[in-house]
């Protein structure tokens, strides 16, 4: 059985001919589309390394079946920067040293982008910590991560404010 | 760095000592940093191991037919079909290699041991193929508890460390003590769980093999793989530009990767193998459990009269790596008599290995709680007690420390934390919500090993440089710090220095472990840079056309891409000019570096620190939160404070993890780990870490090496575990002697 | 994961018809089902994708003030729905204390109800487990069972139900709407999950091929809006399943409790409604004594199923604490650490 699935990935419409319904979004990205920025840390929803945005919401791509995503819009770490210009979250992660080995980082960053979009953290570090708790960092870069999310959120709000004014 | 500090995007200056952001930062935040499993050569196959679900016995059958019948499965490798190896896997591979399990027979020595390898066209097919093998076993009773295993006297602990240290007469010291404290402590088996699972992509070209794999010891690994595959070491190339965390687990050769490499050779196609999270609880090392006993003699002035630290350390049934826990007591507190010793116990588990601060972490956990108990027994403040027993020289040997700014760590840490005024007794502090509040501390200590390393520094015609060493960046920031060291030696801005690392064809950068990588590879780069500059000076000072001609003994100094005459700053010349006139395209400096043996002989060398913890505990429900951690560390010269702070933070979080979270839960009836995942094997998440502070205490060490660099990667975990446990006691009155602390321990 | 056929029905009746074939399973977000398929615990041969079924993703307010929640509504969408969070704050808090932000964004209401136990032996296909393979035995019984059930268990199974969401739902008399080959029916959430008895494999009251289409909270559950909390004890601050949890809801008039609701989580194979405790509180003043007595009733029949006697005491204490917090009033805004004891209000400790 072959399924034909339409996805928009980082703004590009793609038609995926799926010869195997078992393929998860994570494995599709990594093993079939050469988008290896998204990482696999557990494959069971227990670490957050595979976080991407689907229809604008952060989810664990390891527990998402491609077959059920027909028509979805997927954004991965590769689609975040605008050419050479880093997304404010990416820039803030570098500045706050919000990573060490970098393996959890694409997931952390996509999660942070989702978190800021959701808009439930306000400027409260405790809320940021709680809402970033679905992304394990074994290196222990949490303090930098929290700092980066707060900073990026501010930068993005300022930018929005300026654009509105 | 505090959350309130204004964030700035400015560059921070340009040389060693500056908090430059990471050179690999952009690659890592854009997803362009390639880790081993991101590689995908044409025609690649997927391999998945099938693992044993018993811990001891034999595999009696595998349903290879069912697996082969699954669409997409290409091959199944079992003990019957595994191609030969040139080295007996049951023989240890020197210097650090372990016996490995690579389908040499049907014997099962631990749960999660590989028992077959399935190779398929897709990951999905390989995974299901492995599930279809339906192994049958002949199981023997597993031995995984302290009462089950065979005890033995180990010839060595850790990586060739002494199993025993003794000076003075411990029994006499205890006999004459005013009081003797005798306590038992237990630490569990822990698993590294780097976020990146162990992986390899292997591609053969004739009898050459290219291995993409996370690797903390490139040159050593090439030699080992070459021995297994019967090819010259130069035929093995390992690429490991990034590791998604190592923590010691990626320094040693493991069985599963060997199988995948064998499969690639046999099938003449590239093969990728990535372990599942569950499969990492077995063949790739762990921190073995310990059962420790401390006996401390105390006189009426609150001084130690004797210290006895014994650890029963677990290893596997077939190889030896014993957590050198008792050695944590040998270099820290002054005592007229000391005995540290180890006993081994053989369990049916995978062989343990070095895991972040091997020995020091579990040993310090026990020692620092015991010291806190001793302070309490003497009615003394824990900090006063530690100062009272401060070792001015190395206990036993009396050798001077190469440097030891521990007093400053205590003082600065205590000040920043606000330690003064801490009530002596437990259960004295509450916050406004009624939570019990406790403050505890621990001393941090870690040795400064130094590995032989090589490097090359090439000054190029345009005045920039290329520096090369086969090192590994697993998050400690090697790419950045090593470039800073090289830039300093070369008198260049780091932006003018290109660093190549992470591939075995470069000069041997030594091992990224033991917190010794920056010092070891850094010294090599420093020396290579100096060598290049010396050659350049030679060119200039011998060239009558150069303003530096004849500087001779007075010498020149390299700075900002120019050589200056030492006694006359107005006479200088740029590197590019010197090279151009000499008609040279480049100058290549090389170095092999290791520590000066005489300095090593004459000194005790350690990084030190003091960690202060505040915990809050729900008095009714027992839930604990570490609300504040302040660590002050002295570790020689700091190349990049931003990266070093991150290393300390990481270590301190590992301390939180050790104290409150990590434990492999083994069902002793089967020997299986029942929480071999990341949902139930808990490590801290973001909300567990509300506040960290790391203070970098300046320390000048002329003896450790020419660049004055000690190590920072592991020390953070030592001290922290004890500080948290002691804070829990201070909050609740409950003494922690078994890690991790559980809710039921607190509510009683 | 085994191979399977993937079926995307267009409406509920197609879905139900497709699911009637043996070996079928409904696929919602897949955060539980795919996980179990990866570890070989579930091996369905047909997946019926219900994510596109029309009409299942709505939160509908009833004229009487009750609410009907479609089975495909995502956990986070319900928790952050302002009117819902205001009206049923303990439910919102429970939702936000579960899993992670990513998982809540995907996980559906129906899937949350249907999630399977986290018993390690259930997840380990090499272990004996009556729930997974009826009649094979229960390796948890004398195994690593620190976190297993302390009420309602049997020798055949000592597992707990892991859902946070279901705990306040049980307290608030939620109703599950089903549609199956036999037509539509509804059952109280309290009767939805089953205690193991001799048939632990029968986890819920769902008949084969039956689909959860919606969940209803009755209007009278809104009376507790001002005094309702969910509290959850975990082994780390977040992203962990409950060791024990409690949902408490009170209606207090002139200093007297007129109605009380209490349910406990992670102590049984179902969310544990404590009716006797509730009855003991009706007409009482909201005092520590009254709460302690109530908690005593709630755990009266508890007994350890292994190394878990501590859970009985913890459950008692968390019940008391949840009642105290409920009496203090629903927080103005959702706490930063939902359901955590660390987002409690001053003076809440009661034992020590
Ligand atoms: C790491 C991790 C941590 C978690 N932590 C928590 C936690 O702390 N608290 C908590 O409560 N939960 C937790 N969860 C569980 C999570 O809430 C569930 O996985 C989720 O709610 C399931 O929803 P789903 O839509 O993904 O269901 P699916 O996985 O799609 O389905 C689950 C089951 O329900 C059946 N099903 C789904 N929808 C219907 C329907 N409408 N009618 C009939 N049958 C249906 C499916 O056939 C399947 O058997 C955690 C999960 C993970 C992976
Ligand atoms: S407790 Fe229940 S789910 Fe767990 S092993 Fe026993 S029967 Fe299976
Ligand atoms: S890989 Fe998806 S959550 Fe870990
Ligand atoms: S940076 Fe290494 S796991 Fe997060």
UniProtKB/TrEMBL annotation, chain A:
<dbReference type="Pfam" id="PF00111">
    <property type="entry name" value="Fer2"/>
</dbReference>
<protein>
    <submittedName>
        <fullName>(2Fe-2S)-binding protein</fullName>
    </submittedName>
</protein>
<dbReference type="InterPro" id="IPR001041">
    <property type="entry name" value="2Fe-2S_ferredoxin-type"/>
</dbReference>
<keyword id="KW-0479">Metal-binding</keyword>
<dbReference type="GO" id="GO:0046872">
    <property type="term" value="F:metal ion binding"/>
</dbReference>
<dbReference type="InterPro" id="IPR012675">
    <property type="entry name" value="Beta-grasp_dom_sf"/>
</dbReference>
<dbReference type="InterPro" id="IPR036010">
    <property type="entry name" value="2Fe-2S_ferredoxin-like_sf"/>
</dbReference>
<dbReference type="InterPro" id="IPR006058">
    <property type="entry name" value="2Fe2S_fd_BS"/>
</dbReference>
<dbReference type="InterPro" id="IPR002888">
    <property type="entry name" value="2Fe-2S-bd"/>
</dbReference>
<dbReference type="Pfam" id="PF01799">
    <property type="entry name" value="Fer2_2"/>
</dbReference>
<keyword id="KW-0411">Iron-sulfur</keyword>
<keyword id="KW-0408">Iron</keyword>
<feature type="domain" description="2Fe-2S ferredoxin-type">
    <location>
        <begin position="3"/>
        <end position="80"/>
    </location>
</feature>
<dbReference type="InterPro" id="IPR052914">
    <property type="entry name" value="Aldehyde_Oxdr_Iron-Sulfur"/>
</dbReference>
<dbReference type="InterPro" id="IPR036884">
    <property type="entry name" value="2Fe-2S-bd_dom_sf"/>
</dbReference>
UniProtKB/TrEMBL annotation, chain B:
<protein>
    <submittedName>
        <fullName>Dehydrogenase</fullName>
    </submittedName>
</protein>
<dbReference type="InterPro" id="IPR046867">
    <property type="entry name" value="AldOxase/xan_DH_MoCoBD2"/>
</dbReference>
<dbReference type="InterPro" id="IPR037165">
    <property type="entry name" value="AldOxase/xan_DH_Mopterin-bd_sf"/>
</dbReference>
<dbReference type="Pfam" id="PF02738">
    <property type="entry name" value="MoCoBD_1"/>
</dbReference>
<dbReference type="Pfam" id="PF20256">
    <property type="entry name" value="MoCoBD_2"/>
</dbReference>
<dbReference type="InterPro" id="IPR016208">
    <property type="entry name" value="Ald_Oxase/xanthine_DH-like"/>
</dbReference>
<feature type="compositionally biased region" description="Polar residues">
    <location>
        <begin position="1"/>
        <end position="18"/>
    </location>
</feature>
<dbReference type="InterPro" id="IPR000674">
    <property type="entry name" value="Ald_Oxase/Xan_DH_a/b"/>
</dbReference>
<feature type="domain" description="Aldehyde oxidase/xanthine dehydrogenase a/b hammerhead">
    <location>
        <begin position="30"/>
        <end position="141"/>
    </location>
</feature>
<dbReference type="GO" id="GO:0016491">
    <property type="term" value="F:oxidoreductase activity"/>
</dbReference>
<dbReference type="GO" id="GO:0005506">
    <property type="term" value="F:iron ion binding"/>
</dbReference>
<dbReference type="InterPro" id="IPR008274">
    <property type="entry name" value="AldOxase/xan_DH_MoCoBD1"/>
</dbReference>
<dbReference type="InterPro" id="IPR036856">
    <property type="entry name" value="Ald_Oxase/Xan_DH_a/b_sf"/>
</dbReference>
<dbReference type="Pfam" id="PF01315">
    <property type="entry name" value="Ald_Xan_dh_C"/>
</dbReference>
<feature type="region of interest" description="Disordered">
    <location>
        <begin position="1"/>
        <end position="23"/>
    </location>
</feature>
TrEMBL record, chain C:
<dbReference type="InterPro" id="IPR051312">
    <property type="entry name" value="Diverse_Substr_Oxidored"/>
</dbReference>
<feature type="domain" description="FAD-binding PCMH-type">
    <location>
        <begin position="1"/>
        <end position="222"/>
    </location>
</feature>
<dbReference type="InterPro" id="IPR002346">
    <property type="entry name" value="Mopterin_DH_FAD-bd"/>
</dbReference>
<protein>
    <submittedName>
        <fullName>Molybdopterin dehydrogenase</fullName>
    </submittedName>
</protein>
<dbReference type="Pfam" id="PF03450">
    <property type="entry name" value="CO_deh_flav_C"/>
</dbReference>
<dbReference type="InterPro" id="IPR036683">
    <property type="entry name" value="CO_DH_flav_C_dom_sf"/>
</dbReference>
<dbReference type="Pfam" id="PF00941">
    <property type="entry name" value="FAD_binding_5"/>
</dbReference>
<dbReference type="InterPro" id="IPR005107">
    <property type="entry name" value="CO_DH_flav_C"/>
</dbReference>
<dbReference type="InterPro" id="IPR036318">
    <property type="entry name" value="FAD-bd_PCMH-like_sf"/>
</dbReference>
<dbReference type="GO" id="GO:0071949">
    <property type="term" value="F:FAD binding"/>
</dbReference>
<dbReference type="InterPro" id="IPR016169">
    <property type="entry name" value="FAD-bd_PCMH_sub2"/>
</dbReference>
<keyword id="KW-0274">FAD</keyword>
<keyword id="KW-0285">Flavoprotein</keyword>
<dbReference type="GO" id="GO:0016491">
    <property type="term" value="F:oxidoreductase activity"/>
</dbReference>
<dbReference type="InterPro" id="IPR016167">
    <property type="entry name" value="FAD-bd_PCMH_sub1"/>
</dbReference>
């Amino acid at each position: 059985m072959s399924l034909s699935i339409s996805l928009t990935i980082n703004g590009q419409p793609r038609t995926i001919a799926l010869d195997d319904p078992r393929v998860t979004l994570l494995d599709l990205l990594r093993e079939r589309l050469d988008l290896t920025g998204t990482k696999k840390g557990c494959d069971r929803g227990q670490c957050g390394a595979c976080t991407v945005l689907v229809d604008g919401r952060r989810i664990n791509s390891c527990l998402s079946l491609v077959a059920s995503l027909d028509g979805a819009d997927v954004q991965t770490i590769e689609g975040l920067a605008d050419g050479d210009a880093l997304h404010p979250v990416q820039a803030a992660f570098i500045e706050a040293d919000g990573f060490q080995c970098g393996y959890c980082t694409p997931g952390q960053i996509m999660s942070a982008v989702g978190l800021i979009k959701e808009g439930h953290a306000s400027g409260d570090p405790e809320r940021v910590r709680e809402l970033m708790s679905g992304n394990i960092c074994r290196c222990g870069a949490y303090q930098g991560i929290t700092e980066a999310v707060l900073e990026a959120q501010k930068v993005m709000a300022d930018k929005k404010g300026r654009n509105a004014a | 760095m505090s959350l309130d500090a204004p964030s700035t995007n400015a560059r921070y200056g340009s040389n060693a000592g500056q908090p430059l952001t990471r050179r690999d930062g952009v690659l890592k935040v854009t997803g362009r940093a390639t880790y081993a499993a991101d590689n995908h050569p044409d025609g690649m196959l997927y391999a998945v191991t099938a693992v044993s679900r018993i811990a001891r016995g034999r595999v009696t059958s595998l349903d290879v037919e069912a697996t082969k019948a699954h669409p997409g499965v290409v091959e199944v490798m079992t003990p019957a079909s595994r191609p030969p190896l040139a080295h007996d896997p049951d023989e240890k591979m020197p210097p650090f290699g372990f016996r490995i399990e690579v389908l040499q027979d049907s014997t099962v020595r631990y749960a999660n041991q590989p028992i077959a390898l399935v190779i398929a066209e897709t990951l999905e097919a390989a995974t299901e193929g492995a599930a279809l093998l339906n192994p049958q076993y002949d199981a023997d009773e597993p031995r995984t508890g302290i009462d089950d295993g065979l005890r033995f006297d180990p010839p060595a602990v850790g990586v060739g460390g002494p199993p025993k240290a003794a000076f003075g007469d411990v029994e006499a010291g205890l006999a004459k003590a005013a009081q003797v404290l005798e306590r038992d402590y237990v630490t569990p088996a822990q698993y590294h769980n780097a976020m990146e699972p162990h992986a390899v992509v292997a591609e053969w070209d004739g009898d050459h093999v290219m291995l993409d794999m996370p690797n903390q010891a490139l040159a050593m690994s090439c030699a080992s793989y070459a021995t297994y595959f019967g090819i010259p070491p130069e035929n093995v190339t390992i690429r490991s530009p990034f590791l998604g965390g190592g923590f010691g687990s990626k320094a040693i050769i493991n069985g599963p990767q060997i199988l995948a490499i064998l499969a690639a050779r046999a099938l003449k196609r590239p093969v990728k193998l990535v372990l599942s999270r569950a499969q990492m609880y077995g063949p790739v090392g762990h921190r073995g459990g310990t059962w420790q006993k401390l006996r401390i003699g105390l006189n009426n002035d609150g001084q130690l009269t004797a210290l006895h630290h014994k650890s029963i350390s677990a290893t596997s049934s077939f190889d030896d790596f014993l957590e050198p826990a008792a050695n944590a007591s040998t270099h820290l507190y002054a005592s007229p008599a000391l005995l540290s010793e180890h006993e081994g116990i053989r369990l049916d588990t995978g062989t343990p290995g070095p895991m972040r601060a091997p020995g020091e972490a579990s040993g310090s956990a026990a020692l620092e709680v015991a010291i806190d108990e001793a302070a309490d027994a003497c009615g003394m403040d824990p900090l006063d007690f530690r100062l009272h027993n401060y070792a001015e020289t190395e206990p036993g040997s009396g050798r001077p420390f190469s440097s030891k700014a521990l007093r400053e760590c205590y003082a600065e840490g205590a000040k920043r934390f606000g330690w003064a005024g801490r009530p002596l007794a437990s259960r004295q502090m509450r916050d406004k919500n009624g939570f019990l509040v406790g403050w505890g501390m621990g001393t941090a200590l870690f040795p400064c090993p130094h590995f032989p390393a090589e490097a090359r520094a090439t000054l190029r015609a345009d005045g920039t440089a290329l520096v090369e060493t086969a090192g590994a960046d697993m998050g400690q920031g090697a790419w950045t710090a090593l470039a800073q060291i090289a830039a300093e030696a070369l008198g260049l801005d780091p932006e003018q220095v290109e660093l190549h690392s992470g591939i075995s064809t470069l000069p041997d950068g030594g091992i990224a472990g033991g917190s010794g990588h920056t010092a070891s590879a850094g010294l090599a780069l420093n020396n290579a840079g100096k060598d290049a500059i010396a050659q350049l000076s030679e060119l200039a000072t011998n060239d009558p056309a150069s303003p530096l001609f004849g500087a001779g003994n007075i010498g020149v100094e390299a700075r900002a891409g120019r050589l200056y005459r030492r006694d006359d700053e107005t006479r200088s010349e740029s590197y590019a000019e010197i090279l151009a006139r000499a008609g040279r395209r480049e100058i290549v400096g090389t170095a092999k570096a290791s520590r000066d043996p005489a300095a090593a002989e004459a000194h005790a060398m350690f990084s030190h620190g003091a960690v202060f913890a505040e915990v809050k505990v729900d008095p009714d429900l027992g839930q604990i939160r570490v609300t504040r951690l302040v660590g002050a560390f002295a570790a020689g010269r700091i190349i990049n404070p931003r990266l070093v702070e991150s290393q300390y933070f990481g270590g301190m979080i590992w301390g939180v993890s050790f104290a409150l979270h990590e434990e492999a839960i083994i069902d002793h009836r089967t020997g299986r780990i029942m929480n071999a995942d990341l949902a139930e094997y808990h490590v801290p998440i973001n909300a567990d870490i509300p506040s960290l502070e790391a203070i970098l205490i300046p320390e000048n060490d002329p003896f450790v090496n020419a660049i004055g660099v000690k190590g920072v990667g592991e020390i953070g975990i030592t001290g922290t575990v004890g500080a948290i446990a002691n804070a829990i006691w201070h909050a609740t009155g409950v003494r922690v002697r078994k890690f991790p602390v559980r809710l039921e321990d607190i509510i009683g | 994961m085994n191979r399977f056929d993937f079926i995307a029905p267009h409406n509920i009746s197609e879905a139900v018809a497709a699911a009637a074939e043996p070996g079928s399973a409904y696929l919602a977000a897949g955060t539980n089902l795919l996980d179990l398929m990866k570890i070989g615990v579930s091996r369905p041969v047909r997946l019926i994708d219900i994510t596109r079924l029309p009409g299942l993703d709505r939160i509908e307010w009833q004229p009487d003030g009750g609410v009907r929640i479609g089975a495909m509504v995502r956990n986070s969408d319900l928790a952050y729905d302002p009117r819902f969070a205001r009206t049923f704050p303990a439910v919102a808090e429970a939702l936000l204390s579960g899993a992670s932000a990513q998982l809540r964004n995907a996980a559906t209401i129906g899937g949350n109800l249907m999630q399977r136990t986290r018993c390690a032996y259930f997840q380990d296909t090499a272990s004996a487990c009556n729930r997974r393979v009826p009649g094979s035995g229960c390796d948890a019984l004398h195994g690593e069972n620190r976190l297993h059930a302390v009420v309602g268990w049997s020798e055949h199974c000592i597992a707990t139900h892991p859902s946070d969401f279901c705990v306040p739902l049980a307290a608030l008399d939620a109703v599950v709407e089903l549609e199956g080959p036999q037509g539509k029916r509804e059952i109280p959430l309290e009767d939805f999950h089953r205690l193991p008895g001799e048939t632990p494999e029968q986890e819920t009251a769902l008949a084969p091929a039956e689909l959860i289409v919606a969940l209803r909270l009755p209007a009278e559950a809104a009376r507790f809006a001002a005094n309702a909390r969910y509290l959850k004890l975990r082994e780390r601050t977040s992203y962990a399943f409950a060791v024990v949890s409690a949902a408490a809801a009170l209606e207090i008039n002139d200093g007297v409790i007129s109605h009380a609701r209490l349910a406990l989580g992670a102590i049984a194979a179902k969310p544990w409604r404590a009716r006797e405790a509730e009855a003991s509180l009706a007409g009482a003043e909201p005092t520590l004594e009254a709460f302690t007595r109530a908690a005593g009733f709630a755990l009266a029949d508890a007994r350890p199923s292994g190394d878990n006697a501590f859970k009985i005491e913890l459950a008692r204490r968390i019940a008391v604490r949840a009642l105290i917090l409920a009496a203090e009033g629903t927080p103005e805004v959702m706490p930063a650490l939902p359901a955590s004891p660390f987002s409690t209000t001053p003076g809440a400790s009661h034992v020590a």
